[in-house]
């Protein structure tokens, strides 16, 4: 691709490689810094030598690549909040209540029983501390938790809790998700246990939060459907906390969930509209400078209003580089802006690379920049209206191709109506976005007529009804798709090789395409072969027992109590991560055999003394009234497991007994499921 800055590509690839490599390295910070200095001086030396000879050397490029790899490793290490001596994990006692001073940093989607926030730790027991944690505030009808604002200081005395790992296989790992964002604990308090201090921190985020609260207060004078108000907040203000689960599912199943997350799409539409409005200024140098400054001001003003959410920051950074590239008439401004913005964002916050939103947004934009011009060359209708819709179809198709492998990997579903939904919604999104911005501006100035709100409410009602209708077409929604990470790599190789083949028919290109296609069945067969090893799972279910056994034919048997069925969500999780051939249920048994290992289940009958029995694992279920000292004397060389059907007090007593005798004990309440292979 001519015009793309090769130096930027090398820098970005090196940085990404370093970020990916860092978790596998065990080097100290001093060692990493020494490696960085070595790479730096090595690059300078080679660059100086070959520059004097006026030649380009692959050795210089490789030295630059290694330099940015070392930078990536170093940045990931330095961004680790646990390195700070003041981090709360080093001073917070998780077993006892302590006085904690916090600053509200971000509002999260509320739960059924509580409101949720991310907060910064300022002090613990009147001593300075740092780090972020989750604050769960129990809902109180007399004093709603929504009173808390970003930047608000709060004081409480409570017990902090660690984040629980996934309770069952293939569940979303909320603990790992939070740790990637520097959050390692949570507290749960009632409003009575919370003291809101009269002072708060002034910051762009707190200003944006107060502005959004003020605008919503202005709109409270008008009648709007709750779902429509939630869509307005999501589309214009970047706040998705009030969206109902059903509404989000409808947008996801219709393939247009991206319009509810303020991101590159919204910022791009806004930039295009502002550029169109500024066309009368002409194309002189001074007017170009003025237009560039106005566009950047609008982009970052919008980012401020939305509270500098990660998706908006990504988009604002990327479009800033695009706008600057257009000002200098740079060729391939889009690609270079994409590369430069990704480099800047990863250099500032390297762990962004592991966020799904970051991956999807850059995959979509790259695909649009790369594939859309090629699709456009295939021909456009002469009618301008048809041409407009055809371009929307091509853009949607290019973006969907770019994100499809990642979407299948993370979400395991494909919305077949995405093209229809995007063709209807996207042409009007710019109008809906601008209408919403004008509506909020008029409300802020107390100039908003009621009829304008009624019209907007009606438009959003039509939009939500249309999306709900498309989402109800279950036949077009393909769910529970098995898609592993090797298939993601192969899918992108297929896209690149197919594009290469379509551009130039040659033996080399067709050979590459065929090799990639052959790779799919080979990968599926290999993953099936690796999954065929028999496994037995002691799953965690509240107040009941649930076991799962997978045999060599990838047939799953779920053992449950006689009057219960395994949760459908759990079955779907197994299907999306394993190549399941058959599923059946059976009643719980007392003995299970997997390879040469014996599993013995002790239930409420408390029968455990069985002659000649030497189990490898004992599963305690249904709170049996047994003296575990006697059981461990009878079976000393056994792993003990307690599932979710037991009383927590019983489990705590059993765990203390096993700990005292140094016998392995697994508590599914704390550690989640147990797998036996």
UniProtKB/TrEMBL annotation:
<feature type="transmembrane region" description="Helical">
    <location>
        <begin position="57"/>
        <end position="78"/>
    </location>
</feature>
<dbReference type="Pfam" id="PF13567">
    <property type="entry name" value="DUF4131"/>
</dbReference>
<dbReference type="InterPro" id="IPR025405">
    <property type="entry name" value="DUF4131"/>
</dbReference>
<keyword id="KW-1133">Transmembrane helix</keyword>
<feature type="transmembrane region" description="Helical">
    <location>
        <begin position="33"/>
        <end position="50"/>
    </location>
</feature>
<dbReference type="InterPro" id="IPR052159">
    <property type="entry name" value="Competence_DNA_uptake"/>
</dbReference>
<dbReference type="Pfam" id="PF03772">
    <property type="entry name" value="Competence"/>
</dbReference>
<keyword id="KW-1003">Cell membrane</keyword>
<keyword id="KW-0472">Membrane</keyword>
<feature type="transmembrane region" description="Helical">
    <location>
        <begin position="290"/>
        <end position="313"/>
    </location>
</feature>
<feature type="transmembrane region" description="Helical">
    <location>
        <begin position="256"/>
        <end position="278"/>
    </location>
</feature>
<feature type="domain" description="ComEC/Rec2-related protein">
    <location>
        <begin position="235"/>
        <end position="497"/>
    </location>
</feature>
<feature type="domain" description="DUF4131">
    <location>
        <begin position="34"/>
        <end position="194"/>
    </location>
</feature>
<feature type="transmembrane region" description="Helical">
    <location>
        <begin position="481"/>
        <end position="498"/>
    </location>
</feature>
<protein>
    <submittedName>
        <fullName>Competence protein ComEC</fullName>
    </submittedName>
</protein>
<dbReference type="GO" id="GO:0005886">
    <property type="term" value="C:plasma membrane"/>
</dbReference>
<feature type="transmembrane region" description="Helical">
    <location>
        <begin position="418"/>
        <end position="444"/>
    </location>
</feature>
<feature type="transmembrane region" description="Helical">
    <location>
        <begin position="353"/>
        <end position="372"/>
    </location>
</feature>
<feature type="transmembrane region" description="Helical">
    <location>
        <begin position="7"/>
        <end position="27"/>
    </location>
</feature>
<keyword id="KW-0812">Transmembrane</keyword>
<dbReference type="InterPro" id="IPR004477">
    <property type="entry name" value="ComEC_N"/>
</dbReference>
<feature type="transmembrane region" description="Helical">
    <location>
        <begin position="333"/>
        <end position="348"/>
    </location>
</feature>
<feature type="transmembrane region" description="Helical">
    <location>
        <begin position="510"/>
        <end position="527"/>
    </location>
</feature>
<feature type="transmembrane region" description="Helical">
    <location>
        <begin position="392"/>
        <end position="411"/>
    </location>
</feature>
């Amino acid at each position: 691709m001519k015009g793309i800055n090769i130096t930027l590509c090398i820098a970005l690839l090196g940085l990404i490689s370093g970020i990916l490599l860092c978790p596998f390295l065990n080097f100290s910070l001093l060692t990493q810094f020494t490696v960085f200095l070595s790479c730096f001086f090595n690059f300078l030396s080679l660059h100086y030598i070959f520059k004097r000879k006026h030649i380009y050397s692959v050795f210089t490029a490789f030295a630059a690549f290694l330099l940015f790899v070392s930078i990536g490793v170093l940045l990931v290490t330095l961004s680790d909040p646990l390195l700070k001596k003041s981090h709360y994990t080093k001073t917070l006692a998780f077993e006892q209540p302590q006085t904690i001073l916090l600053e509200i940093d971000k509002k999260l989607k509320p739960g059924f029983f509580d409101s949720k926030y991310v907060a910064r730790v300022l002090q613990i027991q009147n001593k300075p501390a740092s780090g972020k944690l989750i604050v769960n505030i129990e809902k109180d009808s007399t004093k709603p938790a929504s009173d808390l604002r970003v930047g608000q200081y709060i004081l409480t005395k409570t017990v902090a809790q660690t984040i629980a790992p996934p309770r069952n296989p293939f569940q979303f790992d909320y603990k790992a998700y939070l740790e990637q964002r520097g959050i390692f604990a949570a507290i749960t308090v009632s409003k009575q246990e919370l003291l809101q201090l009269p002072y708060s921190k002034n910051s762009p985020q707190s200003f944006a939060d107060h502005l959004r609260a003020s605008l919503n207060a202005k709109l409270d004078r008008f009648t709007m459907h709750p779902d429509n108000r939630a869509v307005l907040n999501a589309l214009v203000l970047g706040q998705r906390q009030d969206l109902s689960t059903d509404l989000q599912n409808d947008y996801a199943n219709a393939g247009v969930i991206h319009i509810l997350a303020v991101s590159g799409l919204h910022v791009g539409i806004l930039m295009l509209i502002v550029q169109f409005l500024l066309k009368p200024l002409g194309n002189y140098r001074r007017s170009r400078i003025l237009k560039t400054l106005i566009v950047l001001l609008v982009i970052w003003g919008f980012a401020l209003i939305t509270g500098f959410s990660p998706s908006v920051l990504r988009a604002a950074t990327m479009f800033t580089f695009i706008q600057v590239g257009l000002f200098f008439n740079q060729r391939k401004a889009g690609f270079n802006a994409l590369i430069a913005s990704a480099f800047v964002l990863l250099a500032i916050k390297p762990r962004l690379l592991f966020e799904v939103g970051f991956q999807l947004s850059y995959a979509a934009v790259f695909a649009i920049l790369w594939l859309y011009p090629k699709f456009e060359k295939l021909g456009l209708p002469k009618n301008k209206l048809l041409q407009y819709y055809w371009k929307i179809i091509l853009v949607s198709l290019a973006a969907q191709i770019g994100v499809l492998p990642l979407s299948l990997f993370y979400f395991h579903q494909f919305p077949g109506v995405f093209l229809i939904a995007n063709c209807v919604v996207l042409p009007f999104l710019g109008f809906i976005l601008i209408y919403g911005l004008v509506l909020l501006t008029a409300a802020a100035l107390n100039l908003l007529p009621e009829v304008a709100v009624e019209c907007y409410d009606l438009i959003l009602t039509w939009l939500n009804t249309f999306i709900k209708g498309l989402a109800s077409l279950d036949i077009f929604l393909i769910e529970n798709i098995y898609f592993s990470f090797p298939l993601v790599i192969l899918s992108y190789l297929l896209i690149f090789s197919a594009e290469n083949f379509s551009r130039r028919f040659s033996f080399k290109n067709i050979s590459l395409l065929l090799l990639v296609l052959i790779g799919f069945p080979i990968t599926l067969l290999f993953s099936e072969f690796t999954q065929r090893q028999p496994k037995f799972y002691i799953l965690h279910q509240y107040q009941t027992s649930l076991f799962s056994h997978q045999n060599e034919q990838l047939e799953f048997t779920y053992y449950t109590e006689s009057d219960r069925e395994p949760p459908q969500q759990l079955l779907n999780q197994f299907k999306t991560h394993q190549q399941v051939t058959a599923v059946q249920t059976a009643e719980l048994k007392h003995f299970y055999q997997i390879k040469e290992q014996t599993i013995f289940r002790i239930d409420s009958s408390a029968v455990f003394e069985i002659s000649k029995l030497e189990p490898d694992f004992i599963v305690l279920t249904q709170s049996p009234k047994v003296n575990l000292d006697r059981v461990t004397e009878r079976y000393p060389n056994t792993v003990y497991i307690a599932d979710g059907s037991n009383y927590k007090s019983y489990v705590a007593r059993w765990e203390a007994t096993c700990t005292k005798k140094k016998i392995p004990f697994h508590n599914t309440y704390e550690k989640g499921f147990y797998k036996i292979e």
